Amino acid sequence: MNLEEKVREHINKIKEKDGKIKSFIEVWEEDSIKRAKELELKKEKGKLYGKIVAIKDNMLFEGKEITAGSKILKGHISSYTATAVKKMIDEDAIIIGRTNMDEFAMGSSNENSAYFPTRNPINTDYVPGGSSGGSAAAVAADFADISLGSDTGGSIRQPASFCGIYGLKPTYGTVSRYGLIAFASSLDQIGPFAKTIDDLKSAYDTIKGFDPNDSTTYKEMKEHSDKKLSDMSLGIIEFDEKGCDEAVIENFNKAIGELSKKTKKTVKIKMPHLKYAISSYYIVASSEASSNLARFDGIRYGRYEEGKDLESSYEKTRGKGFGTEVKRRIILGTYALSAGYYDEYYLKAQKIRALVKKDFDEAFKTADILIIPTTPTTAFKIGEKSENPLSMYLNDIFTVPVNLAGVCALSAPYGKDSKGLPCGVQIIADRFSEKYLFEAAKGLL
Amino acid sequence: MEFESVIGLEIHTQLKTQTKMFCSCKIVDSNSPANSSICPVCTAQPGALPKPNEKAVEMAIKIGHALNCSINKFSVFARKNYFYPDLPKGYQISQYELPICENGYIEISNKKIRIKRAHLEEDAGKSLHAIGSEKLEHTLVDFNRCGVPLVEIVSEADMRTPDEAYEYLTELKKLLRWIDVSNCDMEKGELRCDVNVSIREKGTEKFGTKVEIKNLNSFKAVKDALNYEIKRQTEAKLKGENIEHETRLWDASKGITVVMRTKEMANDYRYFPDPDLPPLNIEEEKIENIKKSLGKLPYQIKKEYVLKFGVKEEDIETITSSRYLNSYFEKILSFTSEKETIKNSLNIINTQVLGYINQQKIDEADIETKAPNPKFVFEIAKLLSANEVSSAGAKKLFEEAIKTNESPSILVEKLGLKQTNDLSEIEKFVKEAVELNKKAFEDFKNGNEKATGPIVGYVMKQSKGRANPKIVMDILKKL
């Protein structure tokens, strides 16, 4: 099968099945076919030659619409291409379309998309997770070989787990955020989804690297030397099993058994500050978001609603343009940064963040890799948690600490619950140790 | 009751970098077409990220050194959040808790004005609400200025009079221009000044309630606004009224300040460290190298000249006010170390050279190529020191030298301007003159110095102006 046929086959599959799943907001059919034809003629093939790639609707691709799942940006055309997307293209990937997401990446179910909820390809009554739910579903449904998502508090790993595929949250500062619509700058990181570890790894190898346009990317990345799984020590993070699905615990214990056999030794890891991570995360992320989203004022681009004066124009534009969850977080973040509350909230959250980071530093003194479930539960039903934001936030309990610490983590599919919904194991490694994650994930095959 | 005013200044100076603070857009002047130098970063397109301009950081360090500040090796960019159409990100990148420069001072009339801090930030765009007197239906925004690097310099409230504030501004502007970080043209907005002023009873320590004044477009406006505001506050105090903590605008046409916003209306800027920008980590070595590259600063040079050449401070004011004029003067110093000649050179510079520069409208930066040849100045000064030319002759020489581009040491002979110091020749003329003006000579002997007019006039006429008047007088005294 040549590339053009491959693209056509994928597009047909999308046409046939995505009406129900709704993983894509837009599919670039003509462009993908044209690109496939061009690539056919290429002699030197890139690392991702002919791989079909879907990108989350918060990564810019010049000339294409981008909305971050929000009505406030509806109709907005990217004026440049995100570094990570460009790197994928440079390695001969075919970008097939943009995927649905929770508005501005705020959410864990894709129900916060301003357009429509995406459904879990495994069982369409269930959510695919979020916020990169569209990207996860697209790979799970075989609409794409690889997809790109962004992970601020679990937005790659949680949907990967819910959809039964691999998802990687790289070390903070290894993948450029230039051209990624920011949610929380100090936590956001672009990462790949894939069905195989090889695809996951080649996607990561492609997008990583210093970018002069992103001052938070590292010039030098001190990668750890290669280490075989059998030479690694495995750390099992202690956590409260209350609130976790039985199947999640059962499969997790099986995974421990499997990895314990293959590693040098196993140690128990106590992380005393883990239980504060969620509180810290929602303050830090919302504070940054309240400022990052200030640029969406309708004046230079995006939706604009004229009011009787400047202030009412702002109110109308942002009031109508943003969804409930986004407004909730903007208000929360604005409050946390306000004079008189800054010390009590923002600063305190940053202190907790430093302690969480310290917990990880301590853990990596005795372990090369750490494991914990990706999520306390398997996928929930559409509508089940959408009325209760707090219970939705708690779904991030195991993923959030990784973003706070800036380390890397991977969600690997491992087992299913009684309803056939996938469970995921989260493997965590120190900064720049993504290689360990790939090794360990292979150990779970 | 007697009051004294307490004044502090906040100055914004636009740095002379080629490109903007956080993107590669060229800095263009205000005549450029609107929005002709913009990019995704400075117009806050989705996904765009800032990258700091290293040149701007270096200039901020220069400023810190010039203002005797300590330079923080570790400083943090912070976001100042507020909504306005000419602020595309909805926040300005500035520095808050850890600025790049802190705790400096500059000296004015032997008084130290402490500098609290100097920090880097980016400028906003320009909003156009009206064209001339015609109000626009919609406000237009030009983002060319958006993202241009600024350094904000905040003084302590160490000034006590509007004159001190004026002097502080003058000194600061001189320094900033000297170290070549800003042109400081207030009309172009390259230097902006807000003042804080309060009054208190003389002899008391506690500060009064301060009022901030904005919209000050010239040094004169600063002085006028301060004078007005001090008077207003004093009258209010005397009437037993409270001074409100507020921001006022200077209305230059009416010569008054008016309320812009009260404390209650003040913004909560919600400052927090910018997560898109890692803290600035500046190596000690870099800080030191920049210090070295600055060379001597005007106040240091001034002290040195006074000490070395015994010149008066006021005579070296101009040649230490600009590094271009200073290097012009230093050229002369490379020809001579003779004190008298140096003093004479200064005289020529302060009068004729500056006169020429002003008359020809020579730009400071062009002094090296377009100002009168410093060698000529030196030669004339040397002729003066040797009494070989009269001051009138020196003036003539200068003019001729510029006109002909011929060396004054040749011209002096050509034009017959060389003074004669030949005693016997002068004595002969003096004696003749005394014979012809006996009455005048007698008056002179009786103590009327002015009476020598006809005598000197005769000698000058006979010598064709070449007699050294000093020698003439010496001879007269001895007769």
What does this 3D model show about the protein?
The complex is a heterodimer of chains A (445) and B (479). By secondary structure, chain A is α/β, with parallel strands linked by helices. Chain A is 38% helix and 14% strand. In chain A, strand 7, helix 7 and strand 8 form a beta-alpha-beta unit. In chain A, helix 1 packs antiparallel against helix 2, helix 8 packs across helix 10 and helix 8 packs across helix 11. The mean pLDDT of chain A is 96. Chain B folds into three domains: 3-286, no CATH class; 296-414, no CATH class; 423-478, Arc Repressor Mutant, subunit A, CATH 1.10.10. In chain B, 39% of the residues lie in helices and 21% in strands. Chain B has 15 helices and 16 strands. In chain B, helix 1 packs across helix 4 and helix 12 (423-436) packs across helix 14. The chains are: A alpha/beta (445), B alpha+beta (479). Chain A binds chain B through residues 58-60, 66, 68, 73, 76, 78-80, 82, 177-182, 184-186, 212-216, 287-288, 290-291, 293-295, 297, 299-301, 310, 314, 334, 337-339, 342, 346, and chain B through 40, 43-52, 79, 81, 83, 85, 88-91, 141, 268, 270-272, 274-278.
